[in-house]
Amino acid sequence: MPIARLPPDAVNQIAAGEVVERPAAAVKELVENSLDAGASAIRITAEGGGLTRLLIEDDGCGIPRAELPLAVERHATSKLAPGADGALDLLNIATMGFRGEALPSIGAVARLSIASRAAGAPDAARILVEGGVVTGPMPVSWGGAGAGARVEVRDLFFATPARLKFMKGERAEALAISDVIKRLAMARCDVAFTLEQDGRAQLRLPAEAADEEGRLARLGAVLGREFQDNALLIQTAREGVRLSGYAGLPTASRGDARFQFLFVNGRPVKDRLLQGAARAAYQDVLARDRHPALALFLELDPALVDVNVHPAKTEVRFRDAALVRGLIIGALRHALGSAGVRPATTVTGAALGALGAAPSGAGGWRPAKPGFDRRGVTGEFAPLAQSFHGVMEAAPAAVSSAPAVAAPAPEPELYPLGAARAQLHGTYIVAQTADGMVIVDQHAAHERLTLERMKTMLAGGGVARQPLLIPDIVELDPDDGARLLARAEELAALGLVVEPFGPGAVAVSETPALLGQVDAGRLVRDLCDDLAAFDEGLSLQERLDEVLSTMACHGSVRAGRRLSPDEMNALLRQMEATPRSGQCNHGRPTFVELKLADIERLFGRR
Ligand code: ADP
Ligand code: MG
Fold first, then answer.
1. Bond prior to 416 in cis (omega within 30° of 0)
2. What are the pocket residues of ligand 1 if the criterion is a CB atom closer than 6 Å to any ligand atom?
3. Interval 212-234: pLDDT, tens
4. Does this model's pTM top 0.70?
């Protein structure tokens, strides 16, 4: 057969396979067109998962009657203007669309109707495309005075029945449509959105202010109140790249990464970079199978990011991916570090749920100013907080309940975590705060403090070691022993000195002083488990958080140890002064807060 050009219909149908592979993709293209047209309100109606009917109505600038035929023509767009040199600048794209493909593609596989009234035009016009055949423009009645567009798509894929067979069913398509709208709605909180599917209103989102508060309100409306109440503000910039948005507290984490959203120059994108960066940033505050909720917004020079990777434009390529990754990790870590001892309302909610009551809403102690850090500890407990570890290490195994040091009990109002009132079951510290109470898990809390202290020491030159009078000989599986000894030098910097001691055994001669009396055998065996799970190529430095948290766990006040009131108060003050102390090294909360209002609710007083 000789080579022949494909007829335009076939070209459009082939393009449609990529641009509108499913109804949600058509919805995305049409809503993006509305956003590009400067709409302030967009109404989306879908029937039968979008396969039967789609209607997108906006109040944007509209399309002049004379341009309607061009709008449905392939590779015709109003969004790429030639630069001064007469060339089109594909590297500098500020609109959502630019390929001029969506409308002709949809027209090739469905019954498309575009009615519009252009800004300033006396009346509206309409054009039809059915299976690639264009009719119009023709006059159409237009209720209302303003400009805008009404794009209707009926019988999607009627012209390509083979494609119809690939649809996953109406329910799945309907879900995909609402997912697309949610992402776009998060990207543009200043635009009102409504979504109605099969006669049911699914989303009704009023326009919000174009600032951080408006954005948080929109995120809350889309992702749920829980996200809104448990999110940390992210705001940073480096080398012309601006990052903003909200990051969920570790204690409000999720079982999968579905609640992680990235927007690049207002465009929702799916990029693996985000999940990797989130994992790195949260690695020492979250267990590996938990994922933070995130909505992050990157703003950068359009020339530094390529959105023209795929016709659907949901993938991007960054000119400097390492910069973006570093920026995200740094900003998330900073936010987590300055979150102070803010617990998640989810934790209070779960506690009250177990007791059969609803939380009082905006629970959770919030630092008076962001970045409540060790400088924040003042007054009589400051020295005590600093020396908490000293107190713990020097204390005999069974502390009498009488205070060893006669420090006065602090006023509950003075401190976010209040004044310790009791220790229950040798495990939980109960403290009274200005407007409620907190229950602290002493082991989880102390583990966190030890980890943070070790990190600080490490940054300041190394972890202090404590020699054992008699080296501890630990029997190990030979493979484990070899792996451990291969890291001996790195471990020594962390305060643990191990030497070979014949086949299948090591001698532990020094341990990190901070850990106090530890069971060297158990510590070494746990570390061997860590090392076995690591990638050979990684240095200990790269897995530092895991190694340190294993060590910290061993050095922590075990549950079951009785604490004096001074020790308890010192622990509370130390928690207030330590970044990330709201959760243990595995992302579990270190304390639960109950407001008086919550307690009153429990007793039916409210
Ligand atoms: P692209 O968005 O890539 O330019 P489309 O095929 O999606 O390509 O749209 C073609 C053109 O039709 C757009 O460039 C725009 O000028 C016009 N258009 C489409 N939808 C609308 C709308 N809702 N309001 C105003 N103009 C629109
Ligand atoms: Mg478009």
1. no
2. 29, 33-34, 37, 58, 60-63, 71, 77-79, 97-103, 149
3. 999 999 999 998 888 888 888 99
4. no
